Amino acid sequence: MHKDAERILVSKKEITAKVKELGAQITRDYKGEEPLIVGILRGSFVFMSDLVRAIKLDCTVDFLAASSYGKSTTSSGHLKIIKDLDTNIEGKHVIVVEDILDSGITLSRIVDMLKVRKPASIKVCALLNKPDRRQIELDLDYCGFVIPNEFVIGYGLDYDEKYRNLPDICVLKPEVYTK
Ligand code: IMP
Ligand code: MG
Questions:
Q1: What is the pTM of this model?
Q2: 102 lines ligand 1 (CB under 6 A)
Q3: Percentages helix, strand, coil for the chain, rounded to the nearest 5?
Q4: Is the pLDDT of residue 45 over 80?
Q5: Active site residues
């Protein structure tokens, strides 16, 4: 385990099983369709790469980069679109993939923005859900794990852009972000 990690919250093995399950669920739900999988950068890139390989359908992918955090562990409240989609989503079945649903600000703003572009449907998939910190209500169509209110790193999730490459999801030692 990384020296800045306090403990493993969700192991690599548990993640693998859950991603397979989510992929199978999406495969069933979108039978006969060709969904567009939209990853929110940068946190979703590891989850997304495993998830699309668990979806046994023809699908396309695109990415959107948004930022609200910086070097902090709480949302700043406003969202900046750094990279928009390259795909026209009108008439498409869109699945937005996010690493974690926390305050709900990021995902709800993104979903509102994408709905204006008239997709045939839009659903949301997040690997992690921290319901204790919700400020804006948002229903997840696909959810991996509900977790307690602790700051986690690994499997794509960062603190100050580090730790995204850890294979497990770990709780960050509080002294790392209080120092
Ligand atoms: P929200 O707008 O508060 O829902 O924040 C969602 C974004 O905050 C996610 O995409 C993550 O990038 C980041 N985030 C929230 N909680 C954590 C965490 O525990 N670890 C790492 N990033 C987090
Ligand atoms: Mg993020």
A1: 0.93
A2: yes
A3: 25, 30, 40
A4: yes
A5: 102
